[in-house]
UniProtKB/TrEMBL annotation:
It comes from the Bacteria. SUPFAM superfamilies: NAD(P)-binding Rossmann-fold domains. It comes from Pontibacter indicus. This is NADP-dependent 3-hydroxy acid dehydrogenase YdfG. It holds the Pfam family adh_short. Transmembrane segments: none annotated.
Length: 250
C-alpha cells in the first residue's frame, strides 16, 4: 500500500523541498498551499509518484476541514503530516508592532497548525498510526530582540508538539518537531514586506541552510523504523551558534 504524506505550505521553501524529497522516498504527496499556480508547477515537477493538490489558507478553519474531509478515498490514508506552513511579519519592538502582523503570525503559525492537525488526526486515529512533523524554529527556543510575537508563536509550536506527543503516544502516532536556524528561503522577504535587498542581507557573509537540508532531515525522520521516533531536532548552519550568535565574514 502506498505511503501518503501531506505537506502544508508546499508552494515554496521548506514545504516545497520536503514534498520533492518525500516523493523521491516513495511517498505519494498531498501538497497544500494558497497559490494554485505554484502547486500546479510542483505537481508537474514531481514525476516519481502521484501528487494531489489542495488550495486553501490554513487560517481558514472551514476551508481546511472541507479540503481534508473531501479527499478522495485513495488519499485519506495519510501516514505523514508535515505542518510547515508558517511566516514571520515584521521585526519591531512590541511597542511599535502592528496588530495585523501579530494576527498573521498567530493565525498561521499556531491556529493554522491546529486546524490542519485537527482535520487530519481522525484519519490517523482510525488506523492507529501516523507521524506528525511540526516545523518550529530556534525562535521557539530563544527569544531575540524585536522577535516578540514571532518567537511567541514558535514557543507555542514547541509546547504543542510536546503536548501532542503526550496525548497521542497511546494512539500509535508519532509527533516530532524540527527547529531550524537560518534557512535561505522567502522567509525574510515576507518578514520585510518584499524588501529583497534587506532580505538578502540576512544571508550574506556565511553559508545558510538550504530548504533541501531541512527536507533531507524530515525524510530521515519519517523513514526510521516503526519503534523509533526522533522527537526533536535543532538544525543550524555551521556558522550559527544561537539565535543571536553568528559568524559572519563580511
Amino acid at each position: 500500500m502506498a505511503r501518503i504524506a501531506l505537506v502544508t505550505g508546499a508552494t515554496s521553501g521548506i514545504g516545497r523541498a520536503t514534498a520533492v524529497a518525500l516523493a523521491k522516498a516513495g511517498y505519494h504527496i498531498i501538497a497544500t498551499g494558497r497559490r494554485t499556480e505554484r502547486l500546479q508547477e510542483l505537481q508537474q515537477q514531481i514525476t516519481e509518484v502521484p501528487v494531489h493538490t489542495l488550495t486553501f489558507d490554513v487560517r481558514d478553519r472551514e476551508a481546511v476541514q472541507q479540503a481534508i474531509s473531501g479527499l478522495p478515498a485513495g488519499w485519506k490514508g495519510i501516514d505523514v503530516l508535515v505542518n510547515n506552513a508558517g511566516n514571520a511579519h515584521g521585526l519591531a519592538p512590541v511597542q511599535s508592532g502592528t496588530l495585523d502582523d501579530w494576527d498573521a503570525m498567530l493565525d498561521i503559525n499556531v491556529k493554522g497548525l491546529l486546524y490542519v492537525t485537527h482535520a487530519v488526526l481522525p484519519l490517523m486515529l482510525q488506523r492507529k498510526q501516523g507521524h506528525i512533523i511540526n516545523i518550529g524554529s530556534i525562535a521557539g527556543k530563544e527569544v531575540y530582540a524585536n522577535g516578540n510575537v514571532y518567537c511567541a508563536s514558535k514557543f507555542a509550536v514547541d509546547a504543542l508538539s510536546k503536548g501532542m506527543r503526550i496525548d497521542l503516544v497511546q494512539e500509535g502516532i508519532k509527533v516530532s518537531e524540527v527547529n531550524p536556524g537560518l534557512v535561505e528561503t522567502e522567509f525574510s522577504e515576507v518578514r520585510f514586506k518584499g524588501d529583497k535587498e534587506r532580505a538578502a542581507g540576512v544571508y550574506q557573509g556565511y553559508e545558510p541552510l538550504r530548504a533541501e537540508d531541512i527536507a533531507d532531515l524530515i525524510t530521515f525522520m519519517v523513514t526510521r523504523p516503526a519503534h523509533v521516533n526522533i522527537a526533536e531536532v535543532m538544525i543550524l548552519p555551521a556558522a550559527q551558534a544561537s539565535a543571536t550568535v553568528l559568524n559572519k565574514q563580511l
